[in-house]
Amino acid sequence: MNIAVIGTGYVGLVTGACLAETGADVVCVDVNEIKIEGLKKGVIPIYEPGLDEIVERNYKVGRLQFSTRLRDAVQGCSVVFIAVGTPPHEDGSADLNHVLSVAREIGQSISSYTIVVTKSTVPVGTSAKVKAAVRQALEERGADVEFDVASNPEFLKEGSAIDDFLRPDRIVIGTETNRASETLQKLYHPFVLNGHPLLFMDIPSAELTKYAANAMLATKISFMNDIANLCELTGADVDAVRKGIGSDPRIGTRFIYPGIGYGGSCFPKDVKALIRTGKANNYCLRILESVDAVNNDQKQVMFAKIKRYFGEELAGKTIAVWGIAFKPNTDDIREAPALVLIDSLLQAGAHVQVYDPVAMTDARYLLNDHVLFAGSALDAVKGAHALVLVTEWSEFRLPDWKKISDLMRHQAVFDGRNIYNPAELQENGFAYHCIGRTSSVGKLEPEV
């Protein structure tokens, strides 16, 4: 089966590579010539474990190709995926300009029956707009070419996207015709041999499923962060509460870990977009508005703890930050809580030293020379008055506290992910602060 994927961002590149892995002939298209030439040379523009091996393997055998010419790429393709960006407008609504521009170009290019599949995260009703754009382009060129549209939202988790695509929990597809359903069922058959469902539904339901799924996960995160903050005020321990509620199978243990807020390319954008969709239909999604508000506040929680600890002495202090990416195993810093924390520290007059295993390159473009970019985790803590754990990368989980204590000017640790043992920190002379646990300990005023 011949497939074209338009867009070589996170979703498009993973989709194209994984489809090629099962034997399909795939061409990935992008308007960025530098990116395309880089991909042909094995330069992967994003960090995603395992992606480079799959791209290299399938490119070498010719199943995966890269091009800047959409018109040529879609010729003879059974399925064309639209996987371009849908950045948010200021009001939170999704920007569909790239999606519809691609749809028009597809209509200007196809010459035989094609299924145009929207893979980008888009609001309800977008596939109808894609269909109209393709049809208008065909009419303008006087071409009578059959086509179908479909919605196939992605459910990839950054850091484990390859496994998510090759062994999915479920695949959701919205279609209008049996012909489209049969073709897409054949395409995805290799991915559901693990017994997980291939769910066919109408197109609006498929479009809404993506937003609803991310909104539900974001809700669990904000709910648990709200409970963690209440735990601190009441003397309860959020770890105990989490275990107590997580043992209920109706709730489960996933996404109920407290922290400093969610970030990334999906949750913040999708929650806001769904709120906006509600408003466009004269309906207020009150729960999601609260989810968004709690998350924005939660990104300030760790700074508030640091500010309370140092008081008026924060200006001039050196703060080490471990982790910039919004989560481990990705270089994605979009909406990352670390950026909010760093900005607040800089505005308070603190000096910031940061380290992240893979996200430093992108961070340099945003932070420039306002912070010190350390070469290692230990370099980041040299001369620091406090260490803040923001992203729980594996290499941060078992630090040598004795060595760190010797390197720091003052011993204080702010654990934004609750991954450290308070007793161990106390034994090594650290003031320790976390989220929602009664074990946050330390002097009210630091040693100067």
Description of the molecule:
By secondary structure, the protein is α/β, with parallel strands linked by helices. Helix content is 43%, strand content 13%. The chain folds into three domains: 2-197, NAD(P)-binding Rossmann-like Domain (Rossmann fold, 3-Layer(aba) Sandwich); 211-297, N-(1-d-carboxylethyl)-l-norvaline Dehydrogenase, domain 2 (Orthogonal Bundle); 299-433, NAD(P)-binding Rossmann-like Domain (Rossmann fold), CATH 3.40.50. The longest helix has 32 residues, at 203-234.
Q: Which key phrases capture this entry?
A:
6-stranded parallel beta sheet; N-(1-d-carboxylethyl)-l-norvaline Dehydrogenase, domain 2; Rossmann fold; disordered C terminus; 18 helices; alpha/beta; 3 domains
Name of the CATH architecture of the largest domain = 3-Layer(aba) Sandwich
Overall radius of gyration: 24 Å
Using the alpha-carbon principal axes, give the shape.
elongated
Report low-confidence residues grouped into runs of 5 or more: 441-448
Number of domains: 3
What is the CATH superfamily of the largest domain?
A: NAD(P)-binding Rossmann-like Domain
Strand segment count? 14
Strand content: 5-15%
Q: Whole-Å distance between the termini?
A: 68 Å
Give the overall average pLDDT. 94
CATH fold title of the largest domain: Rossmann fold
- Identify the strand order in the major beta sheet: 3-2-1-4-5-6
The computed structural class is: alpha/beta
Oligomer: single chain
Helix content: 40-55%
Number of helices: 18
Please give the largest β-sheet: 6 strands, parallel
> Tell me, what is the CATH class of the largest domain?
Alpha Beta
